[in-house]
Design brief:
single chain, 309 residues, alpha/beta, nine-stranded mixed beta sheet, four-stranded mixed beta sheet, globular, disordered C terminus
Length: 309
């Protein structure tokens, strides 16, 4: 079968309204002046992963539900401008949207509009199967329509990755994604237990050969082939402006390495470089590191890695 797509990105399309606030958490007040303005731009997790993959030269296709609304128009325009093929299934409830409160240190608080999702939302199975059958790999966003698509993806025999984001290690919603994926990403932000134990538990209960937990300025933790390794953080090439999209950039660069036959640790180093770059991109913009930039900042011998167990 011809594989004309390197990575099919499933779900995660939407638009964010960006509000820069003086601090987080934001103390109660009747009002706040926002001198930098309030702007809405396309770009949620699936969009950022697709953008990162395409910037690294991978043939990328994005499939999701979109509304016939201004937010949907922004998403379509982003993909059109970046030459990323998009299959948009009509969503009568509207395009997913969120408000991101961004603090001076680049941290964010996201408020998601859940009124635009419904329990019966589905991606057409025939479309999922056709695109998955033409793909080398599928990256699955943590949305309900994608959860319902997992059985079809498994039947197609394609490799799968997913990002559990700020999973606490307990919430059962994330379990089907974690068990179906060959490669699992997550953040340590909300983990309540031991990181190594969590990663080993994910691998033991599912198919994942590699599990990666990103930890912001502390770097990342990689479980691959049974070995647990700490991956040091990379110094950003410019001041940190916004952490939004850093995890998506990490995942895209990791997949770039994986699909080019690199070992997991090298893939994780790619991810660290791309994630650091993403933190320097203004929250009202969308950008991703390219191959020359990635390879330049990852050049040289493997650096010593602390905390290997």
């Amino acid at each position: 079968m011809s594989r004309d797509i390197d990575v099919l990105v499933l779900g995660g399309a939407g638009a964010d309204t960006i509000v820069h606030v003086p601090e987080l958490p934001l103390p109660y007040a009747d009002s706040y002046p926002i001198d930098s303005g309030i702007r809405t731009r396309a770009g949620q997790t699936g969009d950022f992963v697709a953008l990162g993959l395409a910037a690294l030269g991978l043939r990328t296709h994005h499939l999701d539900l979109l509304g016939d609304d201004p937010e949907g128009d922004l998403v379509r325009a982003l993909h059109r401008d970046r030459n990323i093929p998009l299959t948009a299934v009509t969503q009568p409830a509207g395009t997913r949207r969120a408000v991101n409160l961004v603090g001076p240190d680049g941290r964010r608080l996201s408020l998601y509009d859940t009124s635009r999702t419904h329990p019966d939302d589905r991606l057409p199975e025939a479309t999922v199967r056709a695109l998955a059958g033409a793909s080398r790999h599928v990256h699955v966003s943590l949305t309900q329509p994608c959860a319902h698509a997992l059985p079809a993806l498994l039947e197609c025999g394609v490799t799968i990755s997913t990002d559990l984001h700020d999973w606490d290690g307990v919430n059962p919603y994330h379990e089907p994604f974690a068990r179906a994926a060959d490669l699992v990403f997550l953040s340590t932000t909300a983990l309540t237990g031991d990181i190594e134990h969590t990663l080993r538990s994910i691998a033991a209960r599912g198919r994942a050969g590699s599990v990666v937990a990103t930890a912001g300025a502390e770097g990342a933790y990689l479980l691959a082939d049974g070995e647990f390794t700490h991956v040091p953080a990379v110094t950003p090439p410019a001041p940190v402006i916004d952490s939004n999209g850093a995890g998506d950039a990490f995942a895209a660069a990791f997949l770039y390495g994986r699909l080019n036959g690199e070992p997991p640790l090298r893939c994780a180093r790619y991810g660290a470089v791309a994630g650091a770059y993403a933190c320097t991109v203004p929250s009202t913009d969308v950008d991703a590191i390219d191959v020359p930039g990635l390879l330049l900042r990852t050049a040289g011998p493997e650096s010593p890695v602390a905390g290997t167990r």
